[in-house]
Design goal:
The structure is a single chain. With 277 residues, the chain is of the alpha/beta class. The chain has a domain of 185 residues: P-loop containing nucleotide triphosphate hydrolases (Rossmann fold, 3-Layer(aba) Sandwich). Helix content is 51%, strand content 14%. It is built from 12 helices and 8 strands. A 5-stranded parallel β-sheet has the order 2-6-1-7-8. It has a 3-stranded antiparallel β-sheet with strand order 3-4-5, with helices on one face. Helix 1 crosses helix 10, helix 3 runs parallel beside helix 6 and helix 8 crosses helix 9. The radius of gyration is 20 Å and the shape is globular. It starts with 6 loop residues before the first strand and ends with a helix. Bound molecules: cytidine-5'-monophosphate.
């Protein structure tokens, strides 16, 4: 970035590796902002689907990307994503949408717009940005870059657990809003595990694993800005690490780089005390 006060830390890696969880914690610890670039691709895909744009029509998708406003707002309960002023934070996480995002992410014209959006958001600020190409393409001059990876099996397990938690939460919400019978009980659907047996559990995991593998193939095989480790990115294999251990490793690397390139880091306002806790 040309702007002198901009300072970017990039975290790239495949689906389900924990970039968002880790990125948010690292950003908080360093008093940086946090940007999830995947949310922009997701929001554009949501708009294309809602407006019934043919996802095979490249020009229509590029036009749509050029005419869309995407904003992020930090709140106490997390970051909200706004698509043309509409809060779409939850909608963009739906699995049916996740399966379609690659159609827009494959297009150079769409990526150009998404990159422009990212660059304007971070301009003049300190950001942890995460995605697939943030270190390799969008912010090639970022002074600190990470590439997180983990085995397919581990990533699928993490995503599966996450989906289960969300499902349980939804079921609990449904349970609380379900009408109560005269004896004070609510419907069966209120019991999170009442209709989920072991085989169903195994099947769902296999589905998540297959989806992770498919998304990897698509992210790595696309001709424009494929998922790669930037030459100067630090690789962290998170397969056998907890979230906290990954955060500690990342902060340790940042502290080491800060000590090596003191002047460059001084203008970022990064304090040693935030790095060495
Ligand atoms: O990170 P997340 O899973 O939300 O990203 C959704 C999709 O957006 C990815 O599967 C990928 O196709 C696309 N993406 C991308 N480049 C990025 C971030 C996300 O192509 N920098």
């Amino acid at each position: 970035m040309s702007n002198k006060s901009t300072f970017i830390i990039t975290i790239d890696g495949p689906a389900g590796v924990g970039k968002s969880t880790v990125g948010k914690i690292v950003a908080k610890r360093l008093h940086f902002h946090y940007l999830d670039s995947g949310a922009i691709y997701r929001a554009l895909t949501l708009k294309a689907i809602t407006k019934k744009v043919n996802l095979a029509d490249r020009n229509a998708l590029i036009r749509l990307a050029k005419r869309t406003r995407i904003k992020f707002r930090q709140t106490d309960s997390g970051t909200r994503v706004y698509l043309d002023n509409r809060n779409v934070t939850k909608l963009i996480r739906r699995p049916e949408l996740t399966a379609q995002v690659y159609q827009l992410a494959n297009l150079a014209g769409v990526r150009k717009e998404v990159n422009r959006i990212q660059q304007s958001i971070v301009s003049g600020k300190k950001y942890v940005v995460e995605g697939r190409d943030t270190g390799s393409v969008v912010f090639p001059d970022a002074p600190v870059k990470f590439y997180l990876d983990a085995s397919h099996a581990e990533r699928a397990l993490r995503r599966h657990r996450e989906l289960e938690i969300l499902q349980d939460r939804d079921e609990k919400q449904r349970h609380h809003s379900a009408p109560m019978s005269p004896d004070g009980h609510r419907g069966e659907a209120g019991h999170p595990d009442s209709h989920r047996d072991a085989s169903e559990h195994g099947l769902a995991y296999k589905k998540v694993l297959d989806e992770i593998k498919l998304r990897d193939r698509r992210d790595k095989a696309r001709s424009v800005a494929p998922l790669v480790q930037a030459r100067d990115a630090i690789a962290v294999d998170t397969t056998h690490l907890s979230i906290n251990q990954v955060v500690v490793q990342i902060l340790h690397h940042i502290a080491r780089l800060a000590a090596q390139r003191r002047n460059n880091f001084r203008r970022s306002g990064l304090r040693q005390s935030r790095l060495c806790r």
